[in-house]
Amino acid sequence: MVKNAVLLSIVFTILVAIASLVKPTSFPKTGVSFSDKIAHTAIYFILTILWLFSMMRQKVSQYPFSKIGIAILLLVIGYGIFIEFLQDTLTDYRSFDYYDMLANTLGACLGFLIFRGFQQQIVNLKSVENSMLDKN
After folding, report:
1. Could you tell me if residue 48 is inside a domain?
2. pTM (2 decimals)?
3. Which regions span the lipid bilayer (predicted)?
4. Domain count of the fold of the chain
5. Pair 132, 123: CB distance under 8 Å
6. C-alpha to C-alpha distance for 112 and 106, rounded to whole angstroms
7. Does residue 130 lie in a domain region?
8. What SS3 class is residue 15?
9. Domain, as residue range, for 110
10. How far apart (Å, rounded) are the C-alpha atoms in residues 40 and 100?
11. Which of 17, 37, 108, 136 is most enclosed, with most CB atoms within 10 A?
């Protein structure tokens, strides 16, 4: 199960790069739109959740409260910035966009915070369950 989570995270990361760098011939030309920024936010939200889940499955202590959780957040944000620079330098059909970077960062931060919230809920439920078992 852990290997599948890591593999899924790797595949999704590669797909993000491919989708970000290929020529958008099949994409409709809509210019800069609100829906484009929502897509960026959603993609980086999913990317962050996948990597955090992969590491949680590795049984990293108190994930994502650990330094590793913060490192994943920073790596995903850095990945989004790196992709924007690659779009500007490697292609002549894509361009660097600060708003895309902002949407990517927002998605990563939301993914981290939501994952952290659910992680805390799981920890709380396990504590209640353990205390109930101790009473019996």
Report:
1. yes
2. 0.78
3. 38-56, 68-86, 98-118
4. 1
5. no
6. 10
7. no
8. helix
9. 2-10+34-122
10. 7
11. 108
Residue among 68, 101, 67, 69 nearest 83 (CA): 101
Q: Mean pLDDT for the chain? A: 82
Residue 38 within a domain: yes
pLDDT at 107: 98
Where does residue 26 rank: exposed (0-12), middle (13-18), buried (19+ CB within 10 A)? Answer: exposed
Residue of 96, 93, 90, 111 whose CA lies nearest to 43:
111
Reported as a single tens digit per residue, the pLDDT across 64-123 is: 457 888 999 999 999 999 999 999 898 888 888 899 999 999 999 999 999 988 876 755
Could you tell me if residue 104 is inside a domain?
A: yes
Residue 27 carries which DSSP code? S
Average pLDDT value for residue range 20-33: 67
Is 13 buried (19+), middle (13-18) or exposed (0-12) by CB count in 10 A?
middle
